[in-house]
Design brief:
By secondary structure, the protein is mainly alpha-helical. It is about 70% helix and about 0% strand. α2 packs across α6 and α9 crosses α15.
Length: about 475
Amino acid sequence: MVFSSLTFLFLYLPLTLLVYFLSPLRWRNFILLAVSLLFYGWGEPVYIVIMFLSIAIDYTHGLLVEKYRDNDRKARWFVAQSVIFNLLLLGFFKYGTFFAENLYALTGLQIPQHIQVLGLTIPLWGVPLPIGISFYTFQTMSYTIDVYRKDAPVQRSVVDFGTFVTMFPQLIAGPIVQYKTVAAELVRRVHSSENFAVGARRFCVGLAKKVLLANSIGALWDECLAAQGAGTLTVLGGWLGLIAYGFQIYFDFSGYSDMAIGLGRIFGFYFDENFAHPYCADSVGSFWRRWHMSLTSWFRDYLYIPLGGNRGGTAKTIRNLIIVWFCTGFWHGASWNFVLWGLYFAAWLILERYVLRNVLEKTPAAVKHLYTLIVVFVGWGLFAIVDLRQCGDYLAACFGAAPLWSAADLFRLASYAVTLTALVIAATPLGQRLWARLPAKADRVATPILMAASLVVCTAYLVDGSYNPFLYFRF
C-alpha cells in the first residue's frame, strides 16, 4: 500500500485516524503498532515475520547493552551482534541474488538456489525483496548504537519499540528516523488540533507533489528511454529525459517524505526534514546536504565519523569518503550501476574538497549552479539505467554521440513546457516565500480551500490514470 492510492486515502487512513483518536492515550502506541503491521502486511503478509524477528533481536540487544553497561567489552559485543544481524538480514534479501550471479560470472561456480533442511526447501537467493527493508534495518541498527553511546535511553516496552520500528508513516520509504530523535515522543507526545492541521496540510502538499508533478513528468522520461531503444535518441532528447527523471525522482520522493512528515505530525511525532530544495544547490557537496538528508546524516553519524571522518589527514579522509559513498550507492540497490553512481559522487566530492574549492569560490553563482545541475542530472542517468551498456550509450548521446535534435523532441518540449516550468518553480523556495507574505486571515481562508482542491484533483488523477509508480519502493 502506498500513500498515493485510493485505498490508503479513503479506507485505511480514515479508519486508522478514527480508531487511534478514539482510543485512550495508554493504548495509542499499541494501536499504531497494530495498524502499521496491517499497513506493511497489506501486500506481502509473509514478511511480517521478518519484522517481528527484527523487533525481537534489536529490542533484546538494547536491553543487553544497557545491562552490561559497566562491561564495555560485552556491551560492544551486543551492539556488534545487532549490527551483524541487521546487515545479514539486509544482505540475504537484497544482495543474495547479486552476489550469487556475480560469483558465478567470475568463477563459473554454480551456487544452489535452494537447500533442503528437515524436509523444508530453504531459498539461498532469488528471494523477493521485502518492501522498506533498507529503511527499517537502518533504523533498528541506530537504536542499539544510540543506547550504547548514551544518546538515547533504553526502551523497556516492546510495544513502544515495535511502534518505532513499524511506524507506517515512514516505514517503507523514510525519512530514516534515528531512535534518539523520537525516543521521548514514544513515551509522551502532544496530540492537538494544531498538530493535526499542520500535519494534514503537509500531507496534502506531498500528495500533490507526488500525483500532480512527479507522475506528470515521469511519462517524458519513459518516452526518451523508449527513443533510445528505438535508436532515435538525440542530444536534446537525452537531456530532456535526464531532466524529467531528475524532477520525477525529486517530487516522487520529497512528496512521499512530506506525506510521511505530515502523518507523523498528526500522530504527535516530529520527524526531521528530508529535503531542502536540493536543486538550488551551488555545489555537489551542498546538493548532498539538501537531498535525502536522513540518509546522509545516518551515514555521517554511524559510518563516516566512526571511520575517522576528516580527522586523519587527506589520504584517510579520501578513503572514508570512498567507503561511505560506495555503501551509499550499494544501499540503493543490488546492481553495479548503483555502485558506480555512489563512486561517481564520491569522486566529485573529493574533487570539490581538494581540487575545485578555490575555483568554485571565484566562480559566479549562476555558473556554479549550472555545473551542479549538470553533475547531478548526469548522475541520475547512472542511477536510473541499470544496464551499464545502455547507460553508457544514453549518456554518450547526451554528450554528442547522436543528432542534436529531432521534430519529436521539439514536440515533446512544447507539450511539456508548462509542466517543466511548474516543476522548476516548485523546486525552489519561491512558492513558500510568497505564501509567507500572505496576511494571517488570508492564510486561514486559503489553506483549507487549497487542501480540499488538491485532494479532489489528486483523487481525480488517481481514478482516471493508471500511471502511479513510486520510485523508492524498490529500495
